[in-house]
Write a structure and sequence with these properties.
This protein has 4 helices and 16 strands. The protein is an alpha+beta fold. It comes from Amycolatopsis jiangsuensis.
């Protein structure tokens, strides 16, 4: 945002106009005495935190434009959200123990703890899946869709896998330790899997859909999905913090002070 101020002329008839820079400086000084004002502004721009209920992520088609959307049913009313506006909390209720036996070694040693968003719904935990059921996509089904997780970042490992119980070993869909895997998905599909996090902390991953429409060129769309694993985890500072606001405020106060000094000099010249 650009701030534009004008410098008034000297005093006329013994009265002075208030300098815009001084007014702005007063506002900044008022904020400096009330940090809550900045906190409120930051809170207003924070994403919605979801910690329980049903969610699906997948491609969406609105007015001819493809995107990634998060289908949020957690409040009992379906809302297709932009993933940038959401953070998923993986609470302490998600703690699970790695089972003994073969097939689960990729999660860690038997008996160790992971944070698990389960394949089947559980109380107090996000139930996260993916789908190709956005109304726009159902109205214009594409020729093909494939999904992937890319650029997984976090303090530990993330494994997304399907569990078949005693029938056969678990199948890894995506994880942070191997190459990017493309998952072909048909239209009107809805699937849930296990999302296992090895360590508390903030995780980010780019959910990507490669789409081949029945008409037109192939399309690739992506969105970053954020997880806060553990109750103590807070979002990392990505440059949108109070520090940025204070730095900008200090700079503007300096400019305002310089403008005030110039105004005083002109006023003295006019009355001298």
């Amino acid at each position: 945002m650009t701030f534009r101020s004008t410098v008034d002329g000297g005093a006329v008839g013994g009265s002075r106009r208030r300098h815009p820079a001084l007014l702005f400086a007063a506002v900044l000084l008022g904020l400096s005495g009330c940090p809550g004002g900045i906190a409120v502004a930051e809170e207003a721009g924070q994403p919605v935190e979801i910690r329980d209920g049903h969610l699906d992520i997948g491609p969406a088609l609105d007015d001819g434009r493809w995107s990634i959307r998060l289908k949020d049913d957690s409040a009992g009313i379906t809302t297709w959200r932009d993933p940038r506006d959401v953070v998923l909390r993986v609470s302490e209720a998600a703690k699970s123990t790695v089972p003994a036996g073969t097939g689960y070694e990729f999660l860690g040693a038997a008996g160790s703890t992971v944070y698990l968003l389960p394949q089947t719904q559980a109380p107090g935990v996000v139930w996260l899946g993916w789908n190709t059921r956005h109304p726009g996509l159902l109205a214009q089904p594409p020729e093909s869709v494939s999904l992937s997780l890319r650029d997984i970042e976090g303090p530990g490992q993330l494994h997304v896998f399907l569990d078949y119980g005693a029938f056969r070993p678990p199948k890894t869909v995506w994880d942070s330790t191997g190459p990017v895997a493309e998952l072909p998905v048909e239209s009107n599909v809805h699937t849930h899997a296990n999302w296992a996090f090895s360590t508390p902390g903030e995780y980010r991953t780019r959910f990507t859909a490669n789409i081949t429409p029945k008409a037109g060129p192939p399309v690739t769309v992506s969105a970053t999905v954020r997880f806060l694993v553990g109750e103590a985890t807070r979002p990392a500072d990505r440059g949108n913090s109070a520090t940025t606001w204070w730095a900008a405020g200090i700079g503007l106060v300096v400019i305002a002070a310089a403008g005030a000094a110039l105004l005083r000099m002109r006023s003295r010249g006019a009355t001298g």
